[in-house]
């Protein structure tokens, strides 16, 4: 682990693998378990940094692929890096762009060397290799940077997943070689699709590389939530206990609670802002469509116990009015609440772990969803695209 | 003037009719001259009340016509009025809806009694009369409410303007009769088109009614800015000096400075948020399109001297990036700056008046625009629609 980083485990649940820790970065601590808001294009959609801080955000994400296409890493480096460019004083994590290259681009060629794709913005050919991704991330200057991986789609046949997992490993070694900055921690990513044996082999292989942190990638790409749970449960215990563990693209109540029970520390998901821009709120584990007629004359706050700016100042009827009128302020106010809500959920879990009451207090979330039971969870991917 | 209202003049310019005053309302003072942001649908587009307060806003507008159509004045009354519904603790002014009825609706009949029009939302027939507008405004509960007037278009022939001006006067008397609340101040509106003699006659007629405040309406509807100046100069001195004077729908630098020189105290305009949503900023009297390539790599703030959240935290290049990426946060950040900018402009004028240096310091703004000189002023209407 680079000198400017450390991970301390403050408490370990006596019934599950859940743990409460602190991940120290050059831009401050991240108290885990913790949900991280996604700011793909160097901004969390509709929310200012000041509002993010008030929502309890510690580490936020940005995306290498998107920022490379626009405005370009050179400009951001010239601005003094992402922290200065987007005015976020806390820790930042950049995703490597692997997921986006494979999910968003019209790929021209993929080889051991890297990927050549056409920019969806202007059609120009772009090469992305492990070295290139790390170079861009070194320029962007986030506290945590991610290895450039090949993320197989779901479903994919076993042979294709094996090839992608092997390539992810050899690319990881090149990422480690290419990485230049000691003030940035490079996390490795466990791939392996839905094949538990491939996942476990990959986790064991990565664990030997003594990286400052580990991620489980390639989930939340369309597979059933129960599969995510199985993958996380089989993989997480194989990762070094003294390093932070990050489950990529997951940020729904049940999936987070269950992953925490397996020892995951960090989460990210586009859900809070994506739902916000559709007028949908996450409230006490439910998903509410604020456009619904039942909110039209409801003058109570969304959640009287929620400390967020939205719940402290506005009624459901007011939000319903803004959403009906397509006022952008409505998207901002609901996004603020949704981000606060998911961060608070992980904060409450952290408190429960510190008191060793997690398994008891969050029992309902640790059960599988019963048949016919509705869930706030999105069936679509929670990964940023 | 109702007991809960008062207007004190603190300073009078020795070279012009400009004055610095304080208009006291049940929800706090308004230090004049002052620009008022427009929150048509009970929200200032893309900006939270907390951000509005930080921008220096004192009184904000909302609109009777729009709020009657959605969500309805009953709901807002049930919420405890507009202040509570939109979480704005300061003074609020509601426009009567006259302008919108005449400019936005497909009018079915117009008579001495009132106007019948089809709702552009759902096609139902709606009647709006002076009594109805005042009843709605009594329900909404703003500090200042406006008389229901007939606003003739520009251009309009003299006979039509005379008829509209006469009707505005007879409707005003009905508004005064209908008005029920002593915690709301009813302002009269001077009409008269671009005909100075009609304007002056209307102003003299209204002045005799001893109203708590007076507005000049029917400007900024497409006529050249020079005509606004002439109308204001001819009309304002005829309004009672101990009452606030409000120039409706005007909020550009030059037009505000010149109207202040004629004795106007209050302004409103949709410009700051409308420009913000188009990625355009008002900076030191100029209008900048942040999408312009010249800002792409410009890492300085829009205005280093501007105290707004946007200028204190973000560069031109960052805003350019957000606007190119169509990120809604860009519209919010530019709107925050634009609102701050126009309020600051009126605050700086107020300070200059208090030191009796207005005519000297703002000399450049008091000159007519030279031929070929570009202006930040919109040629289109600054009225909310």
Automatic annotation (TrEMBL), chains A, B:
Pathway membership, UniProt: tRNA modification; tRNA-queuosine biosynthesis
Coiled coil: none
Molecular function in Gene Ontology: metal ion binding; tRNA-guanosine(34) queuine transglycosylase activity
SUPFAM superfamilies for the chain: tRNA-guanine transglycosylase
Region entry RNA binding, spans: 249-255, 273-277
Binding positions (substrate): 95-99, 149, 191, 218
Alphabetic keyword roster: Glycosyltransferase, Metal-binding, Queuosine biosynthesis, Transferase, tRNA processing, Zinc
Function per UniProt: Catalyzes the base-exchange of a guanine (G) residue with the queuine precursor 7-aminomethyl-7-deazaguanine (PreQ1) at position 34 (anticodon wobble position) in tRNAs with GU(N) anticodons (tRNA-Asp, -Asn, -His and -Tyr). Catalysis occurs through a double-displacement mechanism. The nucleophile active site attacks the C1' of nucleotide 34 to detach the guanine base from the RNA, forming a covalent enzyme-RNA intermediate. The proton acceptor active site deprotonates the incoming PreQ1, allowing a nucleophilic attack on the C1' of the ribose to form the product.
Name listed for the protein in its UniProt record: Queuine tRNA-ribosyltransferase
Species for this entry: Vasconcelosia minhoensis LEGE 07310
């Amino acid at each position: 682990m680079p000198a400017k980083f450390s991970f301390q485990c403050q408490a370990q649940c006596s019934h599950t693998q859940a743990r409460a820790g602190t991940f120290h970065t050059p831009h401050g601590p991240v108290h885990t378990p913790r949900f991280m808001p996604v700011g793909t294009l160097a901004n969390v959609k509709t929310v200012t940094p000041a509002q993010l801080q008030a929502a309890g955000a510690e580490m936020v994400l940005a995306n290498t692929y998107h920022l490379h296409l626009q405005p370009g890493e050179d400009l951001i480096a010239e601005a003094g890096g992402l922290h200065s460019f987007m005015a976020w004083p806390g820790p930042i994590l950049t995703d490597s762009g692997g997921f986006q290259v494979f999910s968003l681009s019209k790929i021209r060629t993929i080889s051991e060397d890297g990927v050549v794709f056409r920019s969806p913005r202007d059609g120009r050919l772009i090469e992305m290799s492990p070295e290139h991704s790390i170079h861009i991330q070194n320029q962007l200057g986030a506290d945590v940077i991610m290895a450039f991986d090949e993320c197989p789609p779901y479903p994919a046949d076993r042979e294709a997943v094996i090839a992608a997992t092997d390539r992810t490993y050899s690319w990881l070694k090149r990422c480690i070689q290419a990485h230049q900055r000691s003030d940035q921690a490079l996390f490795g990513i466990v791939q392996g699709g839905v094949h538990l044996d491939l996942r476990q082999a990959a986790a064991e292989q990565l664990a030997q590389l003594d990286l400052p942190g580990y991620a489980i990638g390639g989930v939340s790409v369309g597979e059933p939530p129960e599969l995510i749970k199985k993958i996380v449960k089989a993989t997480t215990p194989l990762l070094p206990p003294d390093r932070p563990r990050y489950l990529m693209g997951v940020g729904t109540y049940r999936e987070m609670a269950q992953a925490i029970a397996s020892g995951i520390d960090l989460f990210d998901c586009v859900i809070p802002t994506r739902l916000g821009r559709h007028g949908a709120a996450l409230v006490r584990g439910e998903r509410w469509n604020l456009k619904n007629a039942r909110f039209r004359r409801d003058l109570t706050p969304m959640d009287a116990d929620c400390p967020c700016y939205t719940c402290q100042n506005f009624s459901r009827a007011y939000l319903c009015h803004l959403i009906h009128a397509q006022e952008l302020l409505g998207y901002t106010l609901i996004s603020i609440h949704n981000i606060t809500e998911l961060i608070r959920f992980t904060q409450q879990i952290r408190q429960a772990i510190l008191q060793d009451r997690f398994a008891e207090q969050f029992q309902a979330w640790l059960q599988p969803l019963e048949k016919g039971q509705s869930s706030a969870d999105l069936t679509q991917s929670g990964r940023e695209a």
